[in-house]
Amino acid sequence: MAIKLGLRRNIYNLFAMMQGWVSSADLSIFHEFEPPPTGGGHQFLRAFMRQAQLQGFQIENNYLSRATRACLLNSFNFDERRLQLLKRKRVLYVHRVDGPIDVYRGRDDGVDRSIHVVNSNYADRTIFQSSYSLQKHLELGMEFRNPTVIMNAADPDIFHPRDRVAFSCNRKVRLVTASWSSNLNKGASVYQWLDAHLDWDRYEMTFIGQSQIRFKNIHMLPAVDSYKLAKLLREHDIYITASKHDPCSNSLIEALTCGLPAIYLQSGGHPEIVNQAGAGFDAAEQIPKLLDQMIVSYEEYQSLISLPTIEEVSRKYLDVLGLL
Prior knowledge:
Elements: H1 2-18, E1 27-30, H2 40-54, E2 59-61, E3 70-74, H3 80-86, E4 92-97, H4 101-105, H5 111-122, E5 125-128, H6 131-139, E6 147-149, E7 173-179, H7 188-197, E8 203-209, E9 219-221, H8 226-234, E10 238-241, H9 250-257, E11 262-265, H10 270-274, E12 278-281, H11 287-296, H12 298-303, H13 310-320
Parallel strand pairs: 1-2, 1-3, 3-4, 4-5, 5-6, 7-8, 7-10, 8-9, 10-11, 11-12
Helix pairs in contact: 2-13
C-alpha cells in the first residue's frame, strides 16, 4: 500500500511540475474557491491571501511544493484525497473550522464529525472563528488540536464607510439584510414577520441574496459580487440579521465595516461581533422597539462599531501558521 501511495504521489508531483504548479511558496491554502458571488469563507480567504502576499509571502492553492512551510486547511471545503497524496513532514498544518455546521444547517449530515476526523488526522493547530464555535464543539464532545479563536475581517478596499449615504430621520429609515443561502435557519421566518408587521411608512427594507420566501414589502435583490454588495450596504442605515447558530457571519462583519449598526438575533457569534454597536433580540416582535431605540441614538451606536482589521487578523493567522 505504501509503495502504491508513493508511486501515485510521484506521478502527481510530476504532473504538477509539467503544469507549472510547483513553486517556492511559503503557504498553501487547501480550499476550493468558487467565483463570486459566493459565501463568506471565499471572501475572507481571498482577503487574507492578498494581505499575506502584500507581506511578501508566496501562496499556492491545493498543492504542497518542496518549499512549503505551512498549510491552511479550510473546514471541509477541499479535496482530502489530494492532501493525503501530497502531505509531507516539516509542514505545519492549521485547520480553519466554523460551525458546528450540522447545528447551523438544522440537520445531522455528519459534516461536523467528518471535520473532526480531518482535524485529528492532519491538524497541528486549529483556528475557530468565534468563541461560540469553539464552545459549541466542546459541548458536542469534539476537542480539536491546539485551538485558538480569530474573528474574520472584511477587505477594507471593498467594505468601508467612505461615501456612505448619511443617516436622516427626514426620510424612511433604510434596513438591509443579506444571505447567500436559502436555508430557513438564515432567518426567513423573522423577515417574513417584519414583512407583515413593520410600519412601511417609516421604513424600507432590502433583502440581498436567496430566500425560499417571497416578500410583499421587502425589496428583494439577487446575490451580487462584493463590490456591488458594499455599495448597497453604504446606501442603507441599519443591518438586520436573524440567522441562527451562525458562528461568524461575514455579511454581518461586512455591514458593520461599512458603518451600519446592527439589530441581530442573539444566537451564534453575533453578540461577539456586534458588541455595543447594535442590539440583540430573541423574538421578531422585539425588533420594532429596538429600531426605535437605535434611531434615537443612531450616531452613538455607529460610533461603537469596533472590529479587527484584515491586517490584524492576517497577522494572527500568519503567527499561528508559524510564518512570523
